[in-house]
Amino acid sequence: MGPMPDRREKILAVSAELFATKGVASTTVRDIGEAADVFSGSLYHHFKSKNAIVAELLTRYMNDIQRRFAEVVERSQSPQEVLRGLILETLVIIEQHPHPTAIYQNDRRYLRDNGLLEPVDHASRSVREYWMTAIRAGVADGSLRDDIPAEVFYRSVRDSLWASMHWPIRGGYSTGEFADLLTRLFFGGFATER
Known about the structure:
This protein is an all-alpha fold. The protein contains 10 helices and no strands.
């Protein structure tokens, strides 16, 4: 194995950062080549198009989320433990994959218009199932309340987690501390017990 895989990884890393900061539509193959120190022609040796780079970044991203969520389910003993794990892993994913996270969140129109959103949305639906399965199991075993629809709980948690990457206070907490705070808020609410 020579420098080829390294060059391919460098192209992916550089592209991810450019897409996240400039937007996918505004990033050209020339931009990527210059940033990765690769001629455009040689770049096409690794990827047939800019969209092929985007597709690979998002596929790796979604595969990592699926792998992490499957591990959470595997090691958890209860629905609440699964949900705690999913909350933590989502925050870890945002932290470890800031560029694909930004691409997925900020460039949805580009992804949709270029046929790149459907594969990601398909993977995203199976990620959603990890949440919904745990929530329904918690309602069924009585550990979670049944007077709030599972879908409302799921979307509230999911949207809060993804939005938190933009919160100015986010940097004041470690990932574990922040996951713990949000878990306590979602499971316990904000009102004191009377």
